[in-house]
Amino acid sequence: MSELLRPAADWELQQMVAGCIERGLPIEIIGSGSKRAIGRPIDSAITITTASLRGVALYEPGELVMSARAGTPLSEVEVGLAARGQMLPFEPIDLGPTTGGPQGAQTIGAVFAANLSGSRRIQYGAARDHMLGVKGVNGRAELFKAGGRVMKNVTGYDVSRGLAGSWGTLAVLTEVTFKVLPWPESSATIVYVGLPDDLAIELLCAAMGQPLEVSGAVHLQASVAGRLEHPGLREMGKSVTAMRIENFASAVASRKERLKEALKVYGKAFELDHRESLEFWGELRRLSVMPYRPTLLWRISTKPTTAPKLVAAIKRYMPAEALYDWAGGLIWLEVPATADAGTAEIRRVVAIHGGHATLIRAEPNVRASVEVFQPLSPAVERLTRGLKEAFDPAGVLNPGRMYANV
Amino acid sequence: MTLSKLPDPDQKVLAQRDTIVRDLEQLVGARAVISDEEGRRAFESDALTAYRRVPLAVVLPASTQEVCKVLKYCHERRLKVVPRGAGTSLCGGALPAEDAIVLGVSKLNRVLDVDFDNRTIRVETGITNQAISDAVAAEGFFYAPDPSSQLACTLAGNLAMNSGGAHCLKYGVTTNNVLGLRIVLMNGEVVEIGGPHLDAEGYDLMALIIGSEGQFGIITEATVRILRKAEAARPVLMGFASSEAAGQCVAAIIESGIIPVAIEFMDKPAIEVAEEFSKAGYPLDVEALLIIEVEGSEDEISRQLRAIAEIARPFYPSVIEASSSPEQSARIWKGRKAAFGAMGRISDYYCMDGTIPLSRLAEVLTRIAQICGQHDLRVANVFHAGDGNLHPLILYNSNDEDETRRAELAGSEILKLCVAVGGCLTGEHGVGIEKRDLMSVQYTQEDLNVQMRIRSVFDPDLLLNVGKVFPLDAGEKSAAAEAA
Fold first, then answer.
1. Distances (CA, A) of B453 to B59, B208, B216
2. Is residue B428 situated within a structural domain?
3. Does A150 contact B387 at a Cβ distance shorter than 8 Å?
């Protein structure tokens, strides 16, 4: 059992990291720990949680900016934003429930450390796109800052954005500053049912090409749609293809009609009103259609138009169920559990079609024995190791969480 | 002049000039190498013309492979390389050195692939920013980042500086619109990062490379996002009795939930000059003027403009002119677009680029006026208000040495002020040579060390765009710290 440390101040964290460097002890870095089942397992004697580095440090609604201590629960951040009618536009996905962890527990620091975005990413960008600045402690026990609190800033390298998605292997974030946006006044969702994958993705790409700012574009295969909470959609026994329009109420009303008009060759559309729409996209954010169970869950990023072919190619090797997000650019793929997680076949197919794949859910012994994150090209791997060396030469921060020796 | 100090050229390198030119000609052909005095002189500066250095030679490769060859050669001989797009940098980012090779990407300007279904375009990076949008305009698409030099500036330069533009409040800056890169490192190695898909695997190398001011490698190709153009866009012009009221009005609009595509601010001196040259019909009895543009369908635009007028009411705008026709829109924009040029016709100016938190706007504008007053200089402000990116134009006479010196002093005081109120030295122009020595105002030595170590990962021998971004002594301090 690893010892759990809870620094309550940056200097305290700095001292703890310094102590571990001195004693050569690897540290597991966590926020709430809701994503501990993702990535390669870490063998560490010390766990440091940012949970006591908590609170909103700055919030200027008129400037669309907030700074929060890294251990602030995401829910607290979102409640604070909602009180002023604002939101995190990238709609961070909650991987807790689907990986057997708690729901709604993740911290804001972890959202950026893992670069987690949800369906709205297709229109508004990823978590990393909203990152403005960070404070943190690197693996040299140095307290540093990067970026700032203003929207436009090219003063020096973009180090804060560069730390997004590094899963705590380069630095422990203590504070993050990010861009927020107003909640749209209203929304609606247009749904087509029963479309095969290829036609559905074609439709979603056509929708994204309209000047209507579609802010969500998903396709759920019939088996996946059968797990939706929305009774009408669940009970149809058919695939569900959905697009979200968000704007002022009057604009939503006209834009949804124009979207249906543009897509009329694909058949009859159903509509979800604002309330139903919020619930539907909320379900997707929790990934509740991919519930926790002893199957494997892969996350594949690819070019949207390639996605159906990629899924079909994997299906030649193994049974698979797919949820397509980002107009097809993101595939959540559930496959049966096997010792090697289907890695060889899935990585081969992804290599042929382009993109990258991450094994999000698997037993610890499987995650310890296969590459969980996409293997890197030799050149990128060399740069990756170089960055690890620059930030954490002793290799004490989350060692091996993403890649062996990184 | 209190210009940034430039390192002395290496005499040994200068002595080998003929050999180096011959070798380069052999590598990429004589037509791709500029070695005569007059030819090289054309590359002696960028848009920050106070600094001039004639480079050792200029190479204009026509393929990634040629870029590799040149860099590999320079790496082996430890020759410094200065990357160059169109040379429109306002911070001396493309300033050559006498002992360095300028590597220009202007011949790498082809569109490689347009994919409307996936909304991406793959291009060589010597293409101009405008040409990317032009390549997809017929289908109703555009490339969003729009720096004001977009007719001339290259994507390569935009990537190096992480360029913004007037519309980034809504569409983000360069880094938010790039999906993939092909970069050649100093040792000649080609690295592919990302692709037509979203969010590259592993560490976010793309985030680090974009905005690295040419110090990490030469980007030869990129896949960028293209977006469907809104059906229409129209501005509203509003005049206010104080900068404070205008600033508060901007915050109130943003907080109301409306995100305009552009919010431009001009103060009285800027309005007067712009009006005199453009005859746009701007009110001359106001202290501040806002031009706010919204987009969407005609009906959506009308509703948003009405909503903005309503939100502005508590700030007592003395003028509200919402455009109702393309002609009227063009006229409203005419003065703003002419502002920099008009200013240039009445005086030399020094254009600053600090960003501040919008809530400190009134206070900062007052302080800027005081600072310039103390130095006996005039200043005009034209800037992107939505994101707090200021562009104070300090007017001076470049033939007057003392006035030039005072302009530089005032500029550096203004940038320090921007940092002091929670902002930064540069919002979109970059650090380059110009703001290099002010970096320690914004960052501690440890913050700078974090950045400089990243640079060493990409370019361990420190041969790319040397002498920029970091104070010259920062490297020594960092080396001493590492040794200790």
1. 29, 12, 12
2. no
3. yes
